[in-house]
Amino acid sequence: MNKEQIIKGYEYAREAYAAFGVDIDKAMEKADSIPVSMHCWQGDDVIGFDGSDSLTGGIQTTGNYPGRARTPEELREDIAFVRKLIPGTMKLNMHACYAEKDGEKVDRDGYSIRHFQKWVDFCKKQKMGMDFNPTFFSHPMMDGDFSLSSYDEDTRNFWIEHGKRCREIALEAAKQLGQPCAVNFWMPDGYKDICEDTKSHRDLMTASLDEIFSEDIDPELVPCGIESKLFGVGVEAYTVASHEYSYGYAVSRGVLYTLDAGHFHPTEVISAKLSAVLQFCDRIILHVSRPIRWDSDHVIVFDDELKAIMHEIVCNHLEDRVFIALDYFDASINRIAAWSIGMRNARKALLMAYLTPAAIAKAEHKGDLTSRLALQEEAKTLPFGAVWDYYCMKQGVPTGDKWISKVKKYEKDVLCNR
Ligand code: RNT
Ligand code: ZN
User: Fold this and answer.
1) Does the CB atom of residue 166 touch ligand 1 within 6 A?
2) For residue range 249-258, what is the model confidence (pLDDT) as tens digits?
3) Is the pTM of this model over 0.90?
4) What structural domains and CATH numbers belong to the chain?
């Protein structure tokens, strides 16, 4: 599609949506302003740069596509490239294992902002905020898959220190970037097989987390979330930070709850949980992911669940209470395309949510459920693609499939030489 065609489409779409009472210019503006946090770990298969060369903790990347970023420089080069393909307000989601130690003998219990300063500077240059994650996996101090809830005191203390350091790093990053840096705590702690004592590890986890959060750090600058999980690979029978555990911890301690789309029974969806959780939690972090049969972390596609998640946020006016982050890792396709597909889809779903006719909710509130269903169905065939194309053009990012050839060229020029 060329510029004239896209403008023609826009004009038609503007009328079509206006007939349903929707202002598409306003919708584009709003959709553009919502921060979406892009996970740095898609670029290097969740390996990081602080010494580990394999991934543990019950998570797995599959595939062996060429071009994995092997250094912080390569990863930043890839992110700077993909940034140009993605419209809208962005943050970069960092993990502690992406520390740059520059030869210094320092471990995760001693990290500080200087080990992430290049990342913060990069975010500033790229006009992105930052989010942060302590890394409780891929490290010799893991006790099997246990970290904060290990029976070994030295192990727990090491990871407690790590948690504390990460909140301090996030505070510095938030100050430097002038916006909140959300910190997500995911601990893989659990057992492969049926365990006898399900309580003691949870007692220890609670004590460790309480110790980490005992440091007074402004929750507006550093909102911290606890991520629940049903099971992991090799951690099938028991996870310490299950749903009930993490949600209960979050509610009782006034921290955030992190909902990951792949961390529930296969027929459960997180879109159905948002407004329920937000009755009792102030704010939540989302890990938007796509599980196929298990927590497989596939690239998110423009499917019903992605649309439902964004619809829930937007149509319930929860934008200020939800931190949207993506969490998937696919090493079987071009990793930059994986970012572009997922990030563009997240933004598409946001835009679609803002294009929802208000008449649908009005009909519902009046008790006119016939009109609700009729309007919901009519809205589905409004010319959404035309609005998306125009929005991309306006934001100066490739429209339609034009980004694919750019990624292919980058693959040939840069990735294949790695
Ligand atoms: C694992 C969790 C966790 C990780 C990242 C890398 O199942 O979803 O969020 O994916 O921290
Ligand atoms: Zn997650």
Assistant:
1) no
2) 999 999 999 9
3) yes
4) 1-22+357-418 (no CATH), 35-354 (3.20.20.150)
